[in-house]
Design brief:
4-stranded antiparallel β-sheet; 71 residues; mainly beta
């Protein structure tokens, strides 16, 4: 869907494979990965979704934070 992040295995670039998805705030605008966490900024509510992707098949939004200004 439009308000989800896909966890994708790109270890074989010619055959990327979706491993899982997780919900995010509406209107995702950017993404950063650090270790097991995926950080997604979104326009809706100036939100930062923190996704725990330790188990990609069961990735989930661990926390949603409102940030000042537009992401």
């Amino acid at each position: 869907g439009d308000n989800t992040v896909s966890i994708v295995n790109v270890s074989v670039p010619v055959s990327p494979a979706e491993l899982g998805t997780a919900p995010t705030a509406a209107g995702p605008t950017g993404v950063t990965v650090a270790g097991r966490y995926v950080f997604v900024t979104a326009q809706s509510g100036n939100a930062l979704s923190i996704i725990d992707a330790n188990n990609p098949a069961a990735a989930y939004e661990a926390k949603r934070v409102t940030i000042a200004g537009a992401p």
